[in-house]
Amino acid sequence: MNTISTPMLYASSSSSSTSSTSTNKSTLDMTDYLKLLAAQFENQDITNPTDNTEFISELAQFSSLSAINTLTQYSNRQYASSLIGKTVSFTGTNSSGSTVSFNGEVIGSKFSGDTTTLSIYSNGELKDCDISEITAVTEGSSSNNTLSLLTEMAEYSDYRYASSLIGKTVEVQSKDSDGNTSKSTGVVESASFSDGSISLTVNCDGTEGSYDISDVTKVIGTSGTASSGTSSGT
Predict the structure, then answer these.
(1) For 6-61, how does the pLDDT look when each residue is reduced to its tens digit (9 = 90+)?
(2) Beta strands in 27-130 (DSSP E)
């Protein structure tokens, strides 16, 4: 017995409960290793027992490997965090299933067990990429890409909000030529989107008016839950 895999030779003759715990596992943790080590003790030749120093040496080897694995995980996470804000090249699959290279800006990272995943903004969409798929890193960041992503996310949120108001009774405000503010209550009939701006068509007492989404000061409820009206104020 001179390698760390020796206990696995003895594990085949141990109880069925021991072998069943590792049937579907591709890697060993410390608990699994200690179970195999115990099985090795139980099944060794009592007339020719293994030298204790070999067991100690084997345990030390496994502990070293475990520490190296932990260090590798930590290094991967540190590296992933350092990539945030940088432009990278990475491999992935396109719509036809072919492996191609993409470029994009790293905007976040996720960690799960041994897996380190990067969130990359590429070609107008977010892609998840394993850190092992990174092929090149460009120093510096593409701030325009990040700004574009944030703008698109904000616009998408506003679009959903505007669409959800159709058929609801809302309170909107407007200003006259003297700068006086008035508030009206009406039902949102439609929403329009153009060049990043969002306008609502609101029917107040039978009169349709166009309002910017920022003019909505209150959402009262669905159509019919409140009567339309107008109030003035300064």
Answers:
(1) 333 333 333 444 444 444 555 566 677 778 777 877 787 777 776 667 767 777 77
(2) 87-93, 99-112, 115-122, 125-130
What is residue 225's DSSP assignment? S
pTM of the model: 0.35
Q: Which amino acid is at 124?
A: G
Task: Report pLDDT for 1.
Answer: 43
Coil, strand, or helix at residue 125?
A: strand
Task: Name the DSSP letter for residue 139.
Answer: S
CATH 3.30.70 fits 162-233, yes or no: no
| pLDDT classification of 80: cutoffs 50, 70, 90 | confident
Residue ranges of domains in the chain: 6-79, 83-145, 162-233
The helix or strand, by DSSP H or E, that contains position 7, with its residue range, turns out to be: helix 6-11
CB 203 within 8 A of CB 189: yes
Q: What is the 3-state secondary structure (H, E, C) of 147-209?
A: HHHHHHHHHHHHHHHHHHCCCEEEEEEEECCCCCEEEEEEEEEEEEEECCEEEEEEEECCEEE
Q: Which long-range contacts (CB under 8 A, 24 or more apart) does 199-202 make?
A: 200/162, 200/165, 200/170, 200/172, 202/170, 202/172
Sign of CA pseudo-dihedral 81, 84, 87, 91 = positive
Instruction: Please determine whether the domains at 83-145 and 162-233 fall in the same fold group of CATH.
Output: yes
Residues pairing with 193 in the sheet: 198
CA-wise closest residue to 90 among 123, 125, 120, 116? 120
CATH number of 83-145: 2.30.30
